[in-house]
């Protein structure tokens, strides 16, 4: 198929009637996660003949959908999640958006979908943030969560790759996924259901993986646990992920995260924490961790902490584990020292409170000196 060589320019068609400032500030006082959306969205069309074209920033609103839309039936869809933070000078910074752009391409490849050029992914995010900059929260820990996604827009019931797609970016202010004080989560280990299998789509951020995980999460809730932990599909022995977050195991000065076997989602927070842990002098490695190791090493005290990580929730301690046959506590069940140190290090880079030694923050839409509540900080 002939890919278009020129990148599409995003045409700005903003709403003349955005949500009033007073109402917006009310939302920003307590946004939750994924409940409220900003005034606009960016959409870009792909067709087999024309490639990527018709890029527009338009008012946020419903998308028309045909009942025979291929995505509704066969789930040809991928997504990303990244955050934009307001820095101490009012500057708006996205955390490693290039990594999201690349993973979006990798997910699309796996799902037989067209790859959006990295530059276009970034330009779409930037255009939306520039337009809706007033929606980027200024409260500590709060951020604007960007949700780029792509789905088949063609209609038909024959099972095949679609020839038409729509890329969309929407934005939602958030105070974090598990907001409030740092509370360790309890986990249920799924031994009946699996999330992803070798050769499957576990490494792609695609909707069907999440639909497949909902029964496991429901079982966790029925067991009185906060989150579900997934094991490998073949042996049901190796620990893979927790819900939609990657896991880390802390053995004193040594930190281990399950290696990327193809059925795990390669988290950008995971990769960043491996780097930060080494910066802080820990020995950080990727290896296989078995459920048996987790139980035995918790019991003998060599495993001191376990935490989960992801863009939405940051770094979250895991306090206790439950399986069909056993139940145990990790460390003393409270947030561990290494967990909290890594959590703070990451948060400070993102908020601009600490230096950014790896150049992870990408300036979005220039400095915003008109933001409410920031004038004082500039004087
Ligand atoms: C998105 C996601 C993660 C975390 O990835 P980040 O890039 O750190 O946000 C981990 N596991 C799954 C299944 C995910 O969907």
Structural notes for this entry:
The structure is a single chain. The protein has 379 residues and is α+β, with helices and mostly antiparallel strands. It has two domains: 189 residues, D-amino Acid Aminotransferase, Chain A, domain 1 (2-Layer Sandwich); 150 residues, D-amino Acid Aminotransferase, subunit A, domain 2 (D-amino Acid Aminotransferase, Chain A, domain 2). Helices cover 26% and strands 29% of the residues. The chain is built from nine helices and 18 strands. Strands 1, 2, 3, 4, 5, 6, 7, 8 and 18 form a nine-stranded mixed beta sheet that branches. A six-stranded mixed β-barrel has the order 9-10-11-12-15-16. The radius of gyration is 21 Å and the shape is globular. The N and C termini lie far apart (56 Å). The C terminus is likely disordered. The site of pyridoxal-5'-phosphate (PLP) has 13 residues, from strand 12 and helix 6. It catalyses: L-isoleucine + 2-oxoglutarate = (S)-3-methyl-2-oxopentanoate + L-glutamate; L-valine + 2-oxoglutarate = 3-methyl-2-oxobutanoate + L-glutamate; L-leucine + 2-oxoglutarate = 4-methyl-2-oxopentanoate + L-glutamate. It is an enzyme of class 2 (transferase). This is Branched-chain-amino-acid aminotransferase.
Quick overview of this protein structure:
This protein has 379 residues and is an alpha+beta fold.
Q: Which terms would index this structure?
A:
379 residues, D-amino Acid Aminotransferase, Chain A, domain 1, 9 helices, alpha+beta, 29% strand, D-amino Acid Aminotransferase, Chain A, domain 2, six-stranded mixed beta barrel, single chain, nine-stranded mixed β-sheet, binds pyridoxal-5'-phosphate, disordered C terminus
């Amino acid at each position: 198929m002939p890919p278009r060589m020129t990148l599409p320019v995003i045409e700005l068609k903003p709403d003349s009637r955005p949500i009033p400032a007073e109402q917006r500030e009310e939302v920003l006082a307590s946004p939750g996660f994924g409940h409220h959306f900003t005034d606009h969205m960016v959409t870009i069309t792909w067709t087999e003949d024309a490639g990527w074209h018709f890029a527009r920033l338009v008012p946020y609103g419903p998308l028309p959908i045909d009942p025979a839309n291929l995505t509704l039936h066969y789930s040809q869809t991928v997504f990303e999640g990244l955050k934009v933070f307001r820095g101490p000078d009012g500057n708006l910074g996205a955390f490693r958006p290039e990594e999201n752009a690349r993973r979006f391409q990798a997910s699309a490849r796996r799902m037989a979908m067209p790859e959006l050029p990295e530059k276009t992914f970034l330009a779409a995010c930037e255009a939306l943030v520039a337009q809706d900059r007033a929606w980027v929260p200024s409260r500590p820990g709060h951020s604007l969560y960007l949700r780029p996604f792509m789905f088949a827009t063609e209609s038909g019931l024959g099972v095949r790759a679609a020839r038409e797609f729509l890329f969309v970016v929407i934005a939602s202010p958030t105070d974090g996924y598990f907001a409030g004080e740092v509370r360790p989560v309890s986990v249920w280990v799924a031994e009946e259901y699996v999330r992803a299998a070798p050769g499957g789509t576990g490494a792609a951020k695609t909707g069907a993986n999440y639909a497949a995980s909902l029964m496991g999460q429901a079982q966790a809730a029925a067991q009185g646990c906060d989150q579900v932990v997934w094991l490998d599909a073949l042996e049901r022995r190796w620990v893979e992920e927790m819900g939609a977050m990657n896991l880390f195991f802390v053995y004193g000065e040594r930190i281990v995260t399950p290696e990327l076997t193809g059925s795990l989602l390669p988290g950008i927070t995971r990769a960043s924490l491996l780097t930060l842990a080494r910066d802080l002098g820990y020995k950080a490695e990727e290896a296989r961790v078995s459920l048996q190791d987790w139980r035995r090493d918790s019991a003998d005290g060599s495993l001191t902490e376990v935490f989960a990580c992801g863009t939405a929730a940051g770094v979250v301690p895991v306090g206790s584990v439950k399986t069909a046959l056993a139940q145990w506590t990790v460390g003393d069940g409270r947030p561990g020292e290494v967990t909290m140190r890594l959590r703070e290090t990451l948060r400070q880079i993102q908020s601009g409170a600490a230096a950014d030694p790896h150049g992870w923050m990408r300036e979005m839409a220039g400095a915003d000196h008109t933001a409410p509540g920031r004038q004082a900080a500039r004087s």
